[in-house]
Amino acid sequence: xxxxxxATDDPDVLRTFSEIRDWDRLGYRTPRTxxxxxxxxxxxxxxxxxxxxIAMAAEEEQKLIHxxxxxxxxxxxxxxxxxxxxQMIKDLNELEMLLGRTHADYSNDPYSEEAMMQLTRHExxxxxxxxxxxxxDRIRKYLQMLRSRMDPDRPCxxxxxxxxxxxxxxxxxxxxxxxxxxxxxRNIFGAEKNGVRMLVSVQDDExxxxxxxxxxxxxxPEGEALESMVIEHTQDAISHVKEYLGIDMxxxxxxxxxxxxxxxxxxxxxQKETI
Length: 275
Description:
This protein has 275 residues and is of the alpha/beta class. The chain has helices at 11-18, 23-26, 37-46, 58-67, 85-102, 113-130, 136-145, 169-173, 177-189, 223-245, 260-274; strands at residues 4-8, 32-34, 51-55, 78-80, 156-162, 191-193, 196-202, 208-214, 250-257. It has a five-stranded antiparallel β-sheet with strand order 6-7-8-5-9, with helices on both faces. Strand 3, helix 4 and strand 4 (78-80) form a beta-alpha-beta unit. Helix 3 packs parallel to helix 4 (58-67) and helix 9 packs across helix 10 (223-245).
């Protein structure tokens, strides 16, 4: 069973948690509690927690989240707690599924919690970029649960790529499926540069896109400087794709967006409707 830390000074949230009697059926031990960020850090230092639930003033929450960015706790999912019992049970079930995924060993390869968390992040972003995950509140929630360092509220860049022959090009040039292609593309396109995280996504219908977002707590270029940096990195990566994978691709379009949530509302959802 998983261990939780509840960090809150909200009596209603505390009451909701005290009324939950069947923690073992939910997959957890009864949570430890902390009233503020300092107590939460002390608890994390002396007691293991698989995830942290928070419901405090914004300043205290940010203090705790920032403290948890250290290497010791950077993989611990963070979720906001609510006094609504029905919603909290639903959230706890989602969290338990995530923890079950990131703590499970599905292959004969050496197990790595960090690798499983990264794989889960990539799967989530693939859903976002494809338009299958379009609820802004849910996206913010999962970015925090998955401990993504991509900032959803700062200007970002979306690039879409064209392949020479449209339908069927990848099938004739790449025989290992979109998942394997995405792994190869990640190794070439993926980077953290000047405070910006670049993430490539390969969809089942052969659409390829790159999302470049500033990272939390990092300075990053904006506007034309951001766009120029991403394009320069992309052109270099495209040449490597041609050299190592034998796939021709070019930038079909680029969008400098106010933030990731704007893309979710105005681009990703709209492209789903046209498929």
